[in-house]
From TrEMBL:
<dbReference type="InterPro" id="IPR007267">
    <property type="entry name" value="GtrA_DPMS_TM"/>
</dbReference>
<dbReference type="InterPro" id="IPR051401">
    <property type="entry name" value="GtrA_CellWall_Glycosyl"/>
</dbReference>
<keyword id="KW-0812">Transmembrane</keyword>
<feature type="transmembrane region" description="Helical">
    <location>
        <begin position="56"/>
        <end position="75"/>
    </location>
</feature>
<protein>
    <submittedName>
        <fullName>GtrA family protein</fullName>
    </submittedName>
</protein>
<feature type="transmembrane region" description="Helical">
    <location>
        <begin position="127"/>
        <end position="144"/>
    </location>
</feature>
<comment type="similarity">
    <text>Belongs to the GtrA family.</text>
</comment>
<feature type="domain" description="GtrA/DPMS transmembrane">
    <location>
        <begin position="14"/>
        <end position="150"/>
    </location>
</feature>
<keyword id="KW-0472">Membrane</keyword>
<feature type="transmembrane region" description="Helical">
    <location>
        <begin position="12"/>
        <end position="36"/>
    </location>
</feature>
<feature type="transmembrane region" description="Helical">
    <location>
        <begin position="87"/>
        <end position="107"/>
    </location>
</feature>
<keyword id="KW-1133">Transmembrane helix</keyword>
<dbReference type="Pfam" id="PF04138">
    <property type="entry name" value="GtrA_DPMS_TM"/>
</dbReference>
């Protein structure tokens, strides 16, 4: 078991960093999606796009948190300079954000219509959609970040 963990240490660290980043992203989404609609009336439905600013701001929080965890704990420095590495990370993250926002819209509009009661907490359709979008995009993120950005 120890050998298996050591062999897959980077994947395990990526999962932990991703989990922590997801907590930051989901937590900030909860805060933004609760308070932004009070200030901006169209936040809940802006021309058919649900919670656009909440999604963008929370995803940005998660991305920045993930970047620092990635360079400190998960990946070794690649052959790129820090500036280029950060730029590549941000480009990949921007593409991931667009994908995540798209998946969120599909999940929220067509798939997740009801709350899920977890006894200790009830997940709303927007939270379920956000979590599902994060999980789907994280698989792509690991592959691209490892191969392209950090030259793993």
């Amino acid at each position: 078991m120890r050998t298996l963990l050591l062999r897959h240490k980077q994947v395990l660290l990526f999962i932990i960093a991703g989990g922590l980043s997801a907590i930051v992203e989901i937590g900030s989404f909860k805060i933004f999606s609760t308070y932004l609609p009070q200030a901006i009336s169209q936040e809940q439905n802006f021309h058919g796009i649900h919670y656009p600013l909440s999604n963008i701001l929370s995803t940005s929080c998660g991305i920045l948190f993930n970047y620092f965890l990635s360079i400190w704990f998960v990946f070794e420095r690649g052959k790129h300079s820090k500036r280029k590495e950060f730029a590549y990370f941000m480009v990949v993250s921007l593409i991931s954000t667009v994908l995540s926002l798209s998946f969120f819209q599909v999940f929220y509009s067509f798939i997740f219509k009801d709350n899920i009661d977890l006894i200790f907490y009830t997940l709303s359709p927007e939270m379920i959609s956000k979590i599902a979008a994060i999980l789907l995009v994280s698989i792509l993120n690991y592959s691209v970040k490892k191969k392209v950005i950090f030259n793993g």
